[in-house]
Amino acid sequence: MFRQLTKSLYVSPQITLDQVEEAKALGVTVIINNRPDDEEPGQTNGAEVEAAARAAGIAYAAVPVAHGGFAPWQLDGMAAALEQAGEGKVLAYCRSGTRSTLLWALTRARAGDHPAALTEQAASAGYDVTPVRQIMDALAAG
Asked: Bridge partners of 30?
């Protein structure tokens, strides 16, 4: 269920409380929730995931992304959460993993990573960053 984008980053569809322990077993030290609460009926609430993560000794960050697009504060939040992991691993999740992947790609492009390399990394995990590729190019260009 968790897809590995980099040696230290996994993305996933909505996680369950049981999957927090699975993440811990993989060495995850930070869980990033990119999904707004109440997006669909029955989804595990962010506060529940946060409580389970903290009980397991895993840091938690909420950087929700609605379907309307990405804002600079979300890139800032994602960058801060990724930095918080240090040498540890990160699990970012949303409904399908796509928004987490797109936000990661935008954040890394803004930090100077090459958009083509980010595109390849995302594709190798089964995600398509085409919807934000022009923005990635613009961010990488400064």
From this structure: 59, 90
What angle do the packed helices 115-124 and 133-141 form, to 10 degrees?
A: 140
Phi, psi of 89 (to 5 degrees): -105, 155
Q: Are 61 and 31 in contact (CB under 8 A)?
A: yes
Please tell me whether residue 113 adopts helix, strand or coil conformation: coil
Gap between the Cα atoms of 26 and 137, Å rounded: 32
Helix (H) or strand (E) holding 116: helix 115-124
Q: Which DSSP string corresponds to 50-110?
A: HHHHHHTT-EEEE----TT---HHHHHHHHHHHHHTTTSEEEEE-SSSHHHHHHHHHHHHH
Total length of the chain = 142
32 in Cβ contact with 101 (< 8 Å): no
Does 11 have pLDDT greater than 90? yes
Per-residue confidence (pLDDT) for residue 69, from 0 to 100: 87
